[in-house]
Task: inverse folding
């Protein structure tokens, strides 16, 4: 486990997502990345009902941490628990219910390149393609400020100037010890952006 | 509950149930019971295994509560080992006792244990849970096969949340004795094994099944 940065990679107009993913994958293989399996990060929203203040609970999973479940509230408070936490949620049905069509995931190939792990994921929201997320992890360090320059170099050779500065949610925590929950918060931020974009382009009937 | 395509083997764990028998013993007679248990249980040659847990119970319920809604209130017991600060915190959900068969030798109820990070108390409160009560449980732990025996004393906290021992007040002059097994659904044989084990502790303690709902009446 090390420091991870997650970026959205835009799909140029007129190109298909699958094609752009393929180009990125080729690029990773060219610089020496070796495919090591696949990965999924998923997220589902639960809405509070009947409580005085409406609350949203986001439940995330990551194949990199297969025995864990990450629960995030609106304030950003993150609980890391066993995957059995899902079982607890089923007992809370009267208070928190899964929002229909909120399930979003980033899925794709996982590459190893020396000390780096690179993941190129296609994001799908209830089955339809929404965009691309690129994650780069530098395994030997747990302090972001100490390895950011190294990561930036690799990131820029892959996705260019999008990786000019560290991801916004990481910026405040550059000197803290990095935890897997920080990776999940980055994914959640991107997932929320994709959801908002989807809601704007398809107004509810 | 199927939520993702992730690690299905970890997600679809069969529902667990707790089989439980309870009793109490006066403080003065505790040591006799401990020695008896040491002789009966595994690891007889090693010293007594002790534990000291802080337990806080959080309840989620509707604001304007009718009787029907009140019965839907969900409570989570959050535990934290005071003698092992490195150990993760723990959420335990315990269902209502199953009515079922009167001839069943033990109480049977749904049970779910989830280890979690230490910010769980703040997290639950932010979710809307309210602190119901808290206490400290300190005592001894034995196991025989998959049966678990605990002999412990319950302490009330004079100030909620403060867990240093100057803040503890014993709730009674007795220790609570519990014999429990957590197992997947439908293993009725366990109840018989537990009953046989309980027989061997008589007449020191008489382990029985208690219906906690009746205690409120």
Result:
């Amino acid at each position: 486990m090390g420091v991870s940065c997650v970026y959205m990679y835009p799909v140029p107009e007129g190109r298909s997502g699958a094609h752009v993913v393929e180009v990125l994958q080729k690029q990773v293989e060219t610089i020496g990345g070796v495919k090591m399996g696949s990965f999924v990060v998923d997220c589902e929203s639960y809405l509070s009902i009947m409580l005085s203040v409406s609350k949203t609970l986001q439940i995330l999973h990551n194949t990199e941490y297969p025995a864990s479940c990450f629960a995030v509230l609106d304030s950003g408070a993150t609980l890391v628990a066993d995957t059995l936490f899902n079982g607890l949620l089923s007992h809370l049905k009267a208070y928190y219910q899964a929002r229909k069509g909120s399930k979003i995931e980033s899925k794709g190939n996982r590459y190893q390149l020396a000390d780096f792990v690179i993941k190129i994921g296609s994001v799908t929201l209830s089955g339809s393609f929404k965009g691309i997320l690129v994650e780069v992890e530098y395994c030997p360090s747990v302090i972001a400020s100490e390895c950011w320059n190294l990561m930036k170099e690799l990131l820029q050779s892959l996705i260019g100037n999008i990786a000019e500065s560290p991801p916004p949610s990481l910026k405040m925590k550059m000197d803290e010890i990095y935890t897997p929950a920080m990776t999940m918060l980055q994914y959640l931020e991107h997932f929320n952006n994709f959801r908002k974009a989807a809601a704007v382009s398809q107004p509810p009937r | 509950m199927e939520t993702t395509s992730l690690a299905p083997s970890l997600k679809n764990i069969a529902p667990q149930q707790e089989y439980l028998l309870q009793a109490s013993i006066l403080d003065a007679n505790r040591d006799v019971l401990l020695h008896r248990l040491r002789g009966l249980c595994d690891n007889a040659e090693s010293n007594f295994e002790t534990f000291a847990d802080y337990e806080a119970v959080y309840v989620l319920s509707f604001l304007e509560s009718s009787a029907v809604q009140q019965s839907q209130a969900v409570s989570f017991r959050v535990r934290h080992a005071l003698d092992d600060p490195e150990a993760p915190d723990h959420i335990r959900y315990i269902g209502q006792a199953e009515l079922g068969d009167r001839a069943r030798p033990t109480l049977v109820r749904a049970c779910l244990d989830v280890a979690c990070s230490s910010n769980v108390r703040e997290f639950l409160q932010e979710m809307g849970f309210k602190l119901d009560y808290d206490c400290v449980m300190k005592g001894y732990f034995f196991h025989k096969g998959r049966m678990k025996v605990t002999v412990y004393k319950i302490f009330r906290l004079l100030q909620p949340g403060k867990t240093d021992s100057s803040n503890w007040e014993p709730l009674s002059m007795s220790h609570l004795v519990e014999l429990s097994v957590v197992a997947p659904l439908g293993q009725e044989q366990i109840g018989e094994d537990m009953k046989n084990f309980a027989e061997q502790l008589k007449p020191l303690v008489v382990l029985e099944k208690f219906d906690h709902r009746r205690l409120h009446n």
